[in-house]
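Subject line: Sequence and fold of a protein, written as structure tokens
Body of memo: The sequence and its backbone structure tokens, given next.
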Amino acid sequence: MPDLGTQLAGYRIDGVLGRGGMGVVYRATELALDRPVALKLIAPEFAGDASFRERFLRESRLAASIDHPGILPVYAAGEAEGELYLANRFVDGNDLRAVLDDVPLRPERALTLVGQVADALDAAHARRLVHRDVKPGNVLVDAADHCYLCDFGLTMQLGAGGTTASGRLAGSLDYLAPEQIRQGRVEGRTDQYALACVLYELLSGSPPFRRETEAQTLWAHMQEEPPALPGYPQLEPVLARALAKEQEDRYETCSAFVDGARAALGLAPSPVAVRRRRRRLGGRLLATGATLLAVAVATTVLLLTQSSEKLLAPANSVGVIDPASRALVRAIPVGNTPTEVAASDEWVWVLNSNDGAGTISRIDAQTRTLVSTFSIAGTPRNLLSAFGSLWVGTVEGRVLRVDPGTDLVEDSWTLPNAGASTAFEVDLGAGWLAVGPNAVWAGSQRAISRIDP
């Protein structure tokens, strides 16, 4: 175990955050960027296994490839000085095990927490990744009750069996799906089973199949029906389906399970569910999706679909095109000389370049109505929607992070100039913004800057 203050792979170890079966998690500082990280050092009995090391590094890359607000960002993974390590974002909070100290939770809070995890799992499953070890200890919760699913150390490609290369069952006993015990094929609904166990535990104080011995617990997962959930008889059919012994009898997705639970209790859809529905409606909403295309027009500009047909829209408006009919279905007035559009699931922003120093218009993507037009400190030049925020690049060489619902600036950065020694020496020309895995990239003159959201 390294001493406090030890430096390893560019990180300084500052304290212990937790210990688990696979190693120790430290609070550390990434020296190059002076930011806190959670640094996991893998236990020697695993790190000394060549096949484990290869799998660990491969699976860490898979986890890093998923860009989702509910999945803990992976900063780095590798080997240094005989240690196998994984660096993640540091979350100032606790894991879901600490929340369990307050059980039973109110159903609305329990389903809000579980719903965030469900959305994150569905995003992983869409990439053909399955977690295999969903449990309270692998869900971090910050002070605002935002959840981060972490520890993809046992993540594997869909379709593989339920054991690790060493033959161990992959997962934690209280949350193991029957197919994992049988060492059968695992897939997204394997994670759904574990998530249903977590929800049951949040509402009752104990997982549904916990018994006095490990053998009895395994038997219960395989053979017994879930016990009644005291106080919530309306949830029993929902949990029975999510905890079905056969995968094909469960819900299609994790989010469908949570939506079913909320509906059974008469709860309104969660914000996550609303955003998800808006994503599904994206083809019919004003957004840069597959069915409709939003284009800013300054005077009278051609609006282009996938065909070569030409459509006209009024001056100073955003046009909404239906590619099925190739018709302009709506023109939404904005500010003077709109030149750039950025879109999220909920909002569309338009940069109006000739409104004084420049303004930004915000449009509701569902109702296709103008909500607000606002100014920022400086002259806006670039817009980007990423990581739940609007990012604005200014002519003055700053990047602003704007709250999407209030139009208020949450944070700002000043980009280095052309002589900055920390930047790549390339000729960028005009400033720009781009999004990549776990970061926003900004260019100004001859500098490229990486911003950790």
Q: What stands out?
A: Residues 154-170, 278-311, 418-430 have pLDDT under 50 and may be disordered. The chain has three domains: 6-89, 93-155+173-278, 317-451.
